[in-house]
Amino acid sequence: MSIVEMKVPVIGESITEVTLSQWLKGDGEYVELDEPICEFESDKATLEFPAEASGKLIYVAAEGDDLEIGALVAKIDTSAAKNGDGGSSGSEKKEEAAPAQEKPASAPADSKPSYAEGHPSPAAAKILKENEVAASDVKGSGKDGRITKDDAQKAVENKKSAPAAQPAAKPSAPVSAATAAAFSRDSHSKKMSRMRRTIAKRLVSAKNSTAMLTTFNEVDLTEVMALRKKYQDQFVEKYGIKLGFMSLFAKACAKALMEMPDVNAMIDGDDIVYHDYVDISIAISTPNGLVVPPVHNVESLNFAQIELKIKELADKARSGNLTLEEMSGGTFTITNGGVFGSLVSTPILNEPQSAILGMHTIQERPVAVNGKVEIRPMMYLALSYDHRVIDGSTSVTFLVKVKKLLEDPVTLLMDL
Minimum mean pLDDT among 118-122, 250-254, 261-265, 283-287: which range? Predict the structure, then answer.
């Protein structure tokens, strides 16, 4: 018997531990060289772990285990022969040979399905698991019948639309509320995911190790909404993507940050590091938690480039395909709680950055304009900042600059 030990590889300079989030191949199943056998969840991303040899897979670690770099994950018995049952050899293989001959002669010798058939890719597996869709109910359109991300998304869409087309039969007698589990005292616990644990540590660290303060203002988005309405069709026709609020806010922040480098700086020991560029981290909500991948050099990008990059990062984040490089960096963060209906909040700093802008829901409110009361689309803005780096006057001035750029977006377009 020849055994190959599969150990947690070095993933990144700052990563010392990972969590085995899920097995992609079964215990005792035959695996091919370079075939993904499991997924690791690190502090920043989910990574698949390929087999280092062909043979029978033997589990050592279990799903949910926290493993240090170099820890033993599994073993592969390379002496096991490949067969339809996933790894028998010797006399068992000979015993199976006779029944195999009883199959119709018309069946081709190489008709054995590929290991990839009916097996979801890591991204597809995550989507199916989160939406409780069985892989056996999905037909794969990928190579050798593999279930792709698109296949999984279509299956989830079909599942969501199915109840509307075929509503469940109502009970003949109404169910009393008293008979339901309205007074249940049950509880259950679930281990926090590695990403959730990392988020928790970072948020507590930001609260405890920075002199965080928040300043507020409100912005009238009348002109921004008029701009989007007037040029949206032309924008989509030329660039293939809608002009959203995020690119306008990101560009306004980038312009203000270039003029006020303190807000774009960060502390490194006893030094303050200033940046001659603006990398804006965009907060993206995913099923596993909040991630903040940065859009690099926002000061040099146009609105379409910003929108396309944000869409690319959001798609990768929600399918679990963000790389460590795409998660690294950032000099400033924007988070939009308004998409969930938040009216006002105090966002927590994304260390080691010194400031974060919180956007909120747009609400029509009566405001005084030139001595008259008008109904305007208003949004509250919140800027949380590290008072060790940024003075109160600096934070207020920055927020006022962003407000003015958004209330008169022509000055933003003309770089005035």
Answer: 118-122
- Kindly report the CATH number assigned to the domain that includes residue 26: 2.40.50.100
Indicate which residues carry an active-site annotation: 387, 391
State which residues form the domain around 312: 211-413
The backbone torsions φ and ψ at residue 186, rounded to the nearest 5 degrees and listed phi first, read: -70, 155
Same domain membership, residue 68 and residue 215: no
Residues 328 and 367 in one domain: yes
Question: Quick one: 270 and 384 in the same domain?
Answer: yes
User: Which residue's entry shows tokens 């990563």?
Assistant: 15
Answer yes or no: is 148 within a domain.
yes
Q: What's residue 148's pLDDT?
A: 78
pLDDT in tens, 169-195: 555 555 554 555 678 888 888 777 766
pTM, two decimals, is 0.62
pLDDT digits (tens, 9 = 90+) for 28-83: 888 888 888 888 877 666 778 888 888 888 898 888 788 888 888 888 888 877 66
pLDDT (0 to 100) of residue 180: 54
Is 28 among the domain residues?
Answer: yes
